[in-house]
């Protein structure tokens, strides 16, 4: 008898978990969510994300990104319909931002002077002084990818459907309710919790470490020559500067904010004005040298990143099912903050490992499991 699994959550973490679980022999997977690709809602962060790969973890916590990058590189090279393209990436640092005594907010390891990812990302090099824009003290360059998130989310749905995943809409008050939504006709053996910010209030979880990290962006039609991020801005502790051009005509994302605890769903015109002004001062070519007037705005948007104090939660738990009696085996995968895409395959791989621990304890034979990652099944050439 197959193992029945219900994945709760239709964002990139839930979809990638369902995709890899559906590759395993003996799994019957149902994905249950309130929001699905194609929806736009303040509760649903994945479509609003850029998204790209700019490593944000510490070296000690880099498994998720180390395991995801080769798969994204493989997709970019071999699967054009997934909505990826390669882009040169520029990371700029101000010395005052790197000093915790003067920094306006904690620094991501992205801005380390000697980052661990220098050995991961292709073409990594430090920038010379004459390559730095005014106001920046140092920086680095490397090749990365940026994706068109609506295209990529739809591609993930297609891969899941091809592997037999069934999608169902539902609004849950308790996580254990998901076990009774399996399409297999019997309660699920395992529930995967990929509810993102929903984990704050979902019964059976109610994780008080969760909070929104509000991101306000401007989407423009202008094509950016490179992806860019800076270590800080002078306009407030909740504001940041980055730009990334989505693949397949998806426009260029200008950001933005990283405002923890802010639930406001509507774009602020003053923030939008600062976002656009900052980027055209850093990169005048983006707007054809015409300043903010040269930006062709598609829309303003807000997304709430699923921030979790203490970091992502990926672990097993057994929950009592108060309504149905007995217990439900749960694997959690939530709290990815602003790196959900670039850690998605690494985190989903760990979900599969934890699910397989449960399957092995049930006496299943896991000796002939297929490869989870395409990049490990087929060689790729260098950039």
UniProtKB/TrEMBL annotation:
InterPro entries for this protein: D-amino_acid_oxidase_CS, DAO, FAD-dep_OxRdtase
Residues where D-dopa binds: 242, 305, 338
Cofactor list: FAD
Ligand binding (FAD): 195
Keyword Flavoprotein: yes
Keywords in alphabetical order: FAD, Flavoprotein, Oxidoreductase
Every FAD dependent oxidoreductase domain range: 5-354
MF annotations from Gene Ontology: D-amino-acid oxidase activity; FAD binding
Gene Ontology cellular component annotations, sorted alphabetically: cytoplasm
Domain of life per record: Eukaryota
Single GO BP term: D-amino acid catabolic process
PROSITE patterns, per the entry: DAO
Protein family: Belongs to the DAMOX/DASOX family.
Annotated protein name in UniProt: D-amino-acid oxidase
Organism of origin: Cordyceps fumosorosea (strain ARSEF 2679) (Isaria fumosorosea)
